[in-house]
User: Which sequence fits this backbone?
């Protein structure tokens, strides 16, 4: 019997990095997905096949001894195989570019947790989210949990570490244009750089956290009113805070400049250091914004909000 699940990627609209320190962030799931198929196989082994490589190992290995980006899948399979006499084969199919801020790792962990656990029993979304966050911690110890949460439940939501998520019910009528710098990042190392920034300037970082919290509360009101122009000014403000904590660079600044020519506002999304930026548009400036990027040969596409989240087959 095969068990299959898919989960969407995500865009962090506001609050990346600050969310790791307890500030509320606003995120949405996007219509790009990772699909994981799991199947029991003979022998006590775990076999993982993906477009980024393959891994085949016996069960029962220590996670700390596995040096592979496919480790989260091994973790999930090995956990499920305790006291079982079989193995698992896992196949990963992805249309989310890796390491560019669109939540490929969380989509892998959520779809992987669902497909693998459901080989043994029906698991709830809550259980799957817990498993997914545990799996993500094998590659990124300090995850805030925000990405896995939005990949599980879909839609647009606010999230903070203490209170979890709250879905935003109004369906905003905006389009997001994503442009990719094609510079891969490791989320873990950029989060580590921000921790160093914080340790060198605790007072400055705490003041930025307060400003970001206020900004997110303002944005929640603007989303209710669907005030897209004012949302654009908040995007620019949030980008300034991200510049201050040092996760931007020349290339990203150039892309933000291009994105802002026609859109309401543009900023980094996700860890930064490379990866993607998004520009906020509506019907009036969507095409023009895409053309601005295309004219300068940037890899660019528009995404819609995914309201489904995790899907199991
Ligand atoms: N197609 C894939 N097959 C297997 N593993 C993948 C795949 N795509 C992503 N991953 C996992 O996700 C990791 C990349 O995660 P990382 O957090 O660095 O980037 P991201 O999730 O794309 O960006 P962000 O966290 O900023 O949204 C890979 O090292 C691997 O563990
Ligand atoms: C940078 C960060 O805020 C988002 C990465 O997509 C890290 C996290 O929330 O775990």
Assistant:
């Amino acid at each position: 019997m095969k068990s299959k699940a898919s989960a969407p990627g995500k865009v962090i609209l506001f609050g990346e990095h600050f969310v790791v320190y307890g500030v509320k962030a606003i995120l949405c799931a996007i219509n790009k997905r990772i699909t994981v198929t799991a199947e029991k196989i003979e022998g006590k082994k775990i076999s993982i096949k993906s477009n980024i490589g393959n891994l085949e190992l016996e069960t029962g290995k220590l996670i700390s001894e596995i040096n592979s980006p496919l480790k989260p899948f091994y973790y999930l399979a090995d956990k499920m195989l305790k006291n079982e006499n079989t193995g698992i084969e896992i196949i990963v199919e992805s249309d989310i570019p890796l390491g560019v801020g669109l939540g490929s790792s969380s989509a892998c962990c959520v779809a992987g947790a669902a497909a693998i656990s459901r080989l043994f029993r029906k698991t709830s979304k809550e259980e799957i989210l817990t498993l997914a966050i545990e799996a993500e911690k094998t590659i990124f110890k300090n995850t805030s949990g925000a990405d896995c949460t939005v990949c599980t439940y879909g839609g647009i939501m606010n999230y903070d570490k203490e209170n979890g998520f709250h879905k935003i019910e109004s369906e905003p009528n905006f389009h997001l244009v994503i442009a990719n710098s094609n510079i891969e990042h490791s989320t873990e190392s950029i989060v580590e750089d921000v921790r160093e920034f914080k340790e060198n300037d605790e007072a400055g970082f705490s003041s930025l956290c307060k400003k970001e919290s206020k900004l997110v509360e303002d944005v929640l009101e603007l989303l209710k009113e669907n005030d897209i122009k004012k949302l654009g000014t908040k995007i620019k403000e949030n980008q300034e805070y991200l510049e201050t904590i040092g996760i931007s660079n020349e290339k990203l600044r150039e892309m933000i400049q291009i994105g802002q020519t026609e859109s309401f506002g543009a900023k980094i999304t996700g860890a930064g250091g490379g990866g993607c930026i998004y520009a906020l548009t509506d019907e009036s400036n969507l095409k023009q914004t895409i053309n601005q990027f295309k004219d300068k040969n940037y890899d660019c596409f528009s995404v819609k909000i995914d309201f489904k989240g995790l899907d199991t087959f």
Summary: Residues 2-169 form a domain with the Ribosomal Protein S5; domain 2 fold (CATH 3.30.230.10). The CA atoms of residues 20 and 144 lie 5 Å apart. The mean pLDDT is 95. Residues 12, 16-17, 19-20, 101, 143-144, 146-147, 187, 191, 270-271 surround (R)-mevalonate (ligand 2) (CB under 6 Å).
